[in-house]
Specification:
Blueprint: E1 2-5, E2 9-12, E3 17-21, H1 33-42, E4 50-56, E5 64-70, E6 76-81
Antiparallel strand pairs: 1-2, 3-4, 4-5, 5-6
This protein binds zinc ion.
Zinc ion binds next to loops.
Length: 86
């Protein structure tokens, strides 16, 4: 699988680290934050189809990316810096 980094261009998957669901980010200030983080880390959904994920370009620009990937085919639909919204 290859991921297009907005800064570095298309690169091999081995340069990136998967950091989870881009939408399931609990609020650390919530009173039940420990439970919310437990659920986000260990009780994740396994969606079939386009899914927004966070990836870290560890072997490149060290940018955080929001990647839209079809989990059925691994096709990369879109990738932007995580600070941007598509
Ligand atoms: Zn990069």
């Amino acid at each position: 699988m290859r991921i297009r980094c907005p800064f570095c261009g298309e690169r091999d998957l081995g340069e990136f680290s998967y950091l989870g669901d881009a939408e399931a980010r609990p609020n650390p200030a919530a009173p039940d934050a420990a439970q919310l983080f437990y659920e986000a880390v260990y009780l994740r959904d396994n969606p079939a189809g386009p899914h927004d994920e966070l990836w870290y370009h560890a072997q490149g620009c060290r940018g955080w990316l929001r990647v839209t990937r079809d989990t059925r085919t691994h096709a990369i639909i879109n990738s932007v810096f995580a600070s941007e919204r598509p």
